[in-house]
Design brief:
The chain is an alpha/beta fold and 257 residues long. Helices cover 34% and strands 20% of the residues. The chain contains 7 helices and 11 strands. The strands form 2 sheets. A 6-stranded mixed β-sheet has the order 1-2-3-4-5-6, with helices on one face. Helix 4 (162-177) packs antiparallel against helix 5 (195-218), helix 5 packs across helix 6 and helix 5 crosses helix 7 (240-256).
């Protein structure tokens, strides 16, 4: 595979990592952000530890002023240390283990790199440290895995927690309604040009799954596996282990409801 740069907006481009799979879709989107006319870029989620990919990102990004992380999963972070070494850039994340020569991110913080303004939006749920980034001057949201470009994301218990995830979806929905977001750039899959419809679909999907899980419990299912065997019969069994983690999050949510 030849790593290529794809331009999406005047400030955002991505290089697709060669790590396709059931959970990563086409692969990890490593985003490169730069204010028009600026000399320094921001790289979001360097992706896997794949030298070909990292070198392609480096070639496209030029001088990197900062590296940002949306969340801790290895398909987004495995190459962080190597990319920081290649660029000399600081790394910022909500999870301090990924920070290099910089402080952790804080919700509502505004980051400015060579004229590019980025708002930090805390969106826990997919993972405890999940974070989105909004490009203030164009209403674009980098969503990591909180919202995918295709299908729905997994909330894998115990790091993933459904209550906060639903709150995060609602927050993104509010930003869309306030016209502060008009496009979503996901960590996997294609760009989303109708974010309001996708947020509503995600919320409806979660509500429907919760109803199905509750019905399975009423039928006698106790363990996540038993629930999956009843509720996820239309899903490829290769995805059932991930579904079990998602069901565990749903059962935890229902216990607290």
């Amino acid at each position: 595979m030849t790593e290529q740069l794809t331009r999406v907006t005047e400030r955002a481009s991505f290089v697709l990592a060669d790590n396709p799979g059931h959970m990563t879709l086409d692969g990890t989107n490593t985003w490169i952000l730069r204010e028009p006319g600026a000399s320094h870029s921001v790289v979001v989620d360097p992706g896997p530890l794949d030298e070909l990919h990292l070198q392609a990102v480096l070639a496209a990004a030029g001088d990197v002023g900062l590296i940002l992380i949306t969340h801790r999963h290895f398909d987004h972070t495995e190459g962080v240390a190597r990319f920081a070494e290649l660029t000399g850039a600081a790394v910022r994340a909500t999870d301090p283990q990924f920070c290099v020569r910089a402080d952790v991110l804080t919700d509502g913080e505004q980051i400015v790199v060579d004229g590019l303004t980025i708002d930090v939006v805390s969106t826990p749920g997919h993972t405890a440290d999940s974070t989105c980034f909004r490009l203030r001057d164009e209403g674009t949201l980098l969503s990591g895995d909180t919202i995918l470009g295709r299908g729905t994301t997994v909330v894998a218990y115990p790091d993933g927690v459904l209550g906060p995830y639903l709150d995060s979806l609602a927050l993104i929905g509010e930003l869309v309604e306030e016209r502060l977001i008009n496009r979503i750039l996901p960590g996997h899959g294609p760009v989303i040009d109708d974010p309001g419809a996708v947020v509503n679909y995600y919320l409806d999907h979660r509500a429907n799954r919760l109803d199905q899980v509750l019905q399975a419990v009423e039928q006698g299912a106790v363990t996540p596996r038993e629930v999956v065997e009843l509720v996820y019969q239309d899903v490829d069994e290769v995805l059932w282990p991930a579904a079990e983690l998602s069901v565990a999050a749903q059962l935890d949510y229902l216990r607290d409801a």
